Amino acid sequence: MPFVKIKHAGGMRFSGETSTGHDVVMDAGPEFGGENRGARPMDVLLASLGGCTGMDVISILRKKKQDVTGFEININGRRAEEHPKKYTDIDMEFVVRGRNISPEAVERAVQLSMEKYCSVKATIEGVSRISYRHTIINE
How much is the pTM? Predict the structure, then answer.
């Protein structure tokens, strides 16, 4: 079972280690008393969402023999007016670069990740609205 061990590292900073031995450092910005020396917790959540869906999409596209040469995900979160620390809307853009990339294959890979595979998406589902689109750049 995955776990993360987090320790207070002074001020508003926390450091931790994941079950796979990777370091995580989180800190608040100066406006919240931190020093901005680590990722903010909500940034970690958005990065986790991007990483989870990205791994799914790349894996599916490779299985479908798509010639992907580059891949990125741009994610924007909009905070709720009544609760500025809560994201109500998350917009994701999947940018796929490659040769002769099938738009249908990309759409299906993104759909499968968002609907079936990404555990991070399933965790925040119902709390935030997640929209997504994809852009293909044939090189």
Answer: 0.84
Please state which of the four CATH numbers 3.40.50.300, 3.30.300.20, 3.60.15.10, 3.40.228.10 is assigned to the domain occupying 41-138.
Answer: 3.30.300.20
Is the pLDDT assigned to residue 125 strictly greater than 80?
A: yes
- Rounded mean pLDDT, 130-136: 94
pLDDT of residue 2: 67
Handedness of CA 6, 43, 49, 52 (dihedral sign): negative
| Number of neighbours of residue 44 by Cβ within 10 angstroms | 14
Bigger pLDDT: 40 or 132?
132
Sequence-distant (6+) residues with CB within 8 A of 70 are 95, 96, 97, 98, 137
Q: What is the domain partition of the chain in residue ranges?
A: 1-39, 41-138
